[in-house]
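Data availability excerpt. The first of two example chains:
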Amino acid sequence: MEKVTRFEELRCWQAARILVRKVFMYTTTGELAKDRDTRSQVRRAALSVMNNIAEGFNRFSDKEKIRFLEISASSGTEVKSMLYLFEDLNLLPKETIEELRSETDKTINQTFGFIRYLKSKDK
């Protein structure tokens, strides 16, 4: 396995980038376009997923990297929680919610995979 030298090469960051793009795209129309507070909250949470992966990548210690990755995964869980609100209030079509849940799960799982890798290096 080649050494990753840029955060853009991380699969978890690439997945987070897709998630952010879809969250932004799906929140520009319909009821969410009118609800600026809710739209802003889910967008900020999705951005936090992507940006904490990037920020953590340049930390010097694996312990610091892991902390930022954990924050990223937690923000992903926030996005996922908000998707239940969107479903309950019919703010997005069911298919869109399922797509976003899938993207969120993929991103969280890849982030935890990177955390497991970093933790295994210490052993």
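And the second chain:
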Amino acid sequence: MSTSPDPATLAVLVRQDLAMSQGKTAAQVAHAAVGCSLKARKEAAALFERWRSEHGRIVVLGVEGLDDLEFHRQEAKHHGLVHHAVTDAGRTELAPGTVTVLGIGPAQSSILDVLLGRLKAL
């Protein structure tokens, strides 16, 4: 557990309209976390190292659908936050090209709280 008053956090937003199985959801969340981690390591190295040293806090939140996910992607982009959307390959439950989840961060929790505070944890 972080001792920082404003820990670095990675948020993953999951589309609830897709009704993915628990296993599929877990895999998509993992893809988003890895994608954000790789981007952050290059684009925001100091924040990435802080996040990693604080044990890599991840929160998983639900969004209603693609429009909501796209809104949050634009917000992340507007605020200069690392983000990574996952597009499914279509090998199991979903059609190829379906955008399933969006990772944002790592970023300061206070920033994510402002941008995502209305979303419910899964």
